[in-house]
Design goal:
This protein is 40% helix and 15% strand. The chain is α/β, with parallel strands linked by helices. It has a 7-stranded mixed sheet with strand order 2-8-7-6-5-3-4, with helices on both faces. A 4-stranded antiparallel sheet has the order 11-12-15-14, with helices on one face. The protein has a two-stranded parallel sheet with strand order 1-13. The relative contact order is 0.17. It catalyses: (sulfur carrier)-H + L-cysteine = (sulfur carrier)-SH + L-alanine.
């Protein structure tokens, strides 16, 4: 394994901020790509809001409503600033999956004549994704294609599960209307050339939709600077609560996109014959909002900002390197995704020869090491790799070199335990 640099001290230094590790002092938690742990200040801050300031937002004129609304909108400002967006460009959603569905459903309504023609699709139009998509950034586009008569096409991956900007450019046509892709693959860890994709899509008049779930918690992100039209990410992967995510969209696009959810609090005028909607972001926030979760989301963004995302990125790049070294040191274990020395997100997925991924995960779990097993909501990618499942270890700000060393030692015992090394 490579020797750690001073950047890795962020892991040990912040670990005491997370109550999970006080409750489980011997735990090795390498499943942050699925759900990250939360620092005490996020947990306590959300709970304190619920105890002292909880009330409906944007409804009525009481002091309680005003204070709750201020906290709600302050959280929006924090999260928007964290990803380089304006306040009007960040919509609260039930999660990243919900955010991606909201875009596709809005385009479906536009295609039915209920909104701006720039979002309308029909026969002959094309939606382009990659073969590496999480189901949340694939199935909504499948359904949109079926509703509208558009064609769903995909950028193929190679034997390592990777695609290139040249592959994507070759798949673009003058009929491409949407390009949806992951910033960081949740299986391979591949980091996409986002700005290049956005430029290529813009050249053919296509909208870009970025799945940023695996990048926003780990890299300095400026969505405006990257040039994408829409993006989705979630709180529970970036040290925040479950049940809330965010949809980013350029303000002029959000103001024109039909809202997928309708009801109270997102309208200007309602008659018995129709309704007119508020500008973004509130036109997308129908009904009772996840107020305390939004507060927690904002606190998580504040916590990461205080650490400094450049330091977070440096730490996690080193953890990724250590994880790759750990995997490559074990005979009979194959690494998925970028080879050693190439940039990747802070995760590794592996195939252990002769042992099913679920058995690998159980073996590691028995030794206090939490990882993710399965197809990671990316069945087409696993099918292309020729396996039904992989074992994934993913890092965060609290991951330490010792965590990786314990993972390496346990991984080295798996094939012997199951008799697969004979």
């Amino acid at each position: 394994m490579t020797s750690p640099s001073s950047a890795t001290r962020i892991g040990a230094a912040v670990r005491e901020d997370f109550p999970y590790f006080a409750a489980h002092p011997d735990a090795v938690y390498l499943d942050s790509g699925a759900t990250s742990q939360r620092p005490a200040e996020v947990i306590d801050g959300e709970a304190e809001f619920a105890r002292r300031d909880y009330a409906a937002v944007h409804r009525g004129s009481s002091m309680a409503t005003g204070e709750a609304t201020a906290a709600f909108e302050d959280a929006r400002e924090r999260v928007a600033g964290f990803v380089g967006a304006g306040e009007r460009e960040l919509v609260w959603t039930a999660g990243a999956t919900d955010a991606l569905n909201m875009i596709a459903l809005g385009m479906s309504d536009a295609s039915a004549g209920l909104g701006d023609d720039r979002f309308a699709l029909g026969e002959g139009d094309e939606i382009l994704v990659t073969e590496a998509e999480h189901h949340a950034n694939l199935i909504p586009w499948q359904r949109l294609a079926r509703r509208t008569g558009a064609s769903l096409r995909y950028v193929p991956v190679d034997d390592a599960g990777l695609w290139t900007i040249d592959d994507l450019r070759a798949a673009l046509t003058p009929r491409t209307r949407v390009v949806a892709f992951p910033h960081i693959s949740n299986v391979t860890g591949q980091i996409a050339p986002v700005a290049d994709v956005a430029e290529a899509a813009r050249a053919v008049g296509a909208l870009t939709v970025l799945d940023a779930c695996q990048s926003v918690p780990h890299l300095p992100i400026d969505l405006t600077g990257l040039g994408v039209d829409f993006a989705a990410f979630s709180a529970h992967k970036m040290l925040g609560p479950t049940g809330i995510g965010a949809l980013y969209g350029r303000a002029e696009l959000l103001d024109a996109l039909p809202p997928a959810r309708t009801g109270g609090s997102m309208i200007t005028t309602v008659t018995m014959d129709g309704a007119e909607f508020l500008p973004a972001p509130h036109r997308f926030e129908a009904g009772t909002q996840p107020v305390s979760q939004a507060v927690g989301f904002g606190l998580a963004a504040e916590y990461l900002s205080r650490l400094g995302m450049e330091h977070v990125a440096a730490h996690e790049a080193e953890m990724a390197g250590l994880l790759v070294d750990a995997v490559q040191s074990v005979p009979g274990v194959r690494l998925v995704g970028p080879a050693a020395g190439r940039p990747r997100g802070a995760l590794v997925s592996v195939i252990v020869d002769g042992v099913h991924a679920h058995d690998v995960g159980q073996f590691l779990d028995d030794r206090g090491i939490t990882v993710r097993t399965g197809h990671h909501c990316a069945q087409p990618l696993h099918r292309r790799l020729g396996v039904s499942a992989t074992t994934r270890a993913s890092a965060s700000v609290y991951t330490t070199p010792d965590d990786v060393a314990r993972f390496q030692d346990a991984l080295g015992e798996v094939r012997g335990f199951f008799g697969a090394d004979r």
